[in-house]
């Protein structure tokens, strides 16, 4: 009977530790996904800002050309 109880406790500990590792891995992956999403949003905002700046530069260079000629 003691052997059966020991085996049950060992299995319970094993499955609990496996479950906890799985939860830790899931949390880690969720954090990485959030970080990637934030980085994607930052890069998108930077791209939009660069596009706007490029439009302003084109307008400015067109105005300069018109003033020179």
Please give a structural write-up.
This protein is rod-shaped. 97% of the residues lie in helices and 0% in strands. It is built from one helix and no strands. It is mainly alpha-helical. It has one helix at residues 2-68. The model has no long low-confidence stretch (mean pLDDT 95).
Chain-wise SSE layout:
Blueprint: H1 2-68
Q: How would you briefly describe this protein structure?
A:
By secondary structure, this protein is mostly helical. The protein has one helix and no strands.
Number of helices: 1
Distance between the termini: 101 Å
Oligomer class: single chain
**Unreliable stretches, pLDDT < 50, 5 or more residues?**
none
Name the beta content range.
under 5%
Radius of gyration: 30 Å
What structural category characterises the helix and strand content?
Answer: mainly alpha
The count of β-strands is 0
Outline the biggest β-sheet: none
Mean pLDDT: 95
Instruction: Please provide the ordered H/E string of secondary-structure elements.
Output: H
Percent helix, as a range, is over 70%
Outline type: rod-shaped
Descriptive key words:
1 helix; mainly alpha; about 0% strand; about 95% helix; rod-shaped; about 70 residues
């Amino acid at each position: 009977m003691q052997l059966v109880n020991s085996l049950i406790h060992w299995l319970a500990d094993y499955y609990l530790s496996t479950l906890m590792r799985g939860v830790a891995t899931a949390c880690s992956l969720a954090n990485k996904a959030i970080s990637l999403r934030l980085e994607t949003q930052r890069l998108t905002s930077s791209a939009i800002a660069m596009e706007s700046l490029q439009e302003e530069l084109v307008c400015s260079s067109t105005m300069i050309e018109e003033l020179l000629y």
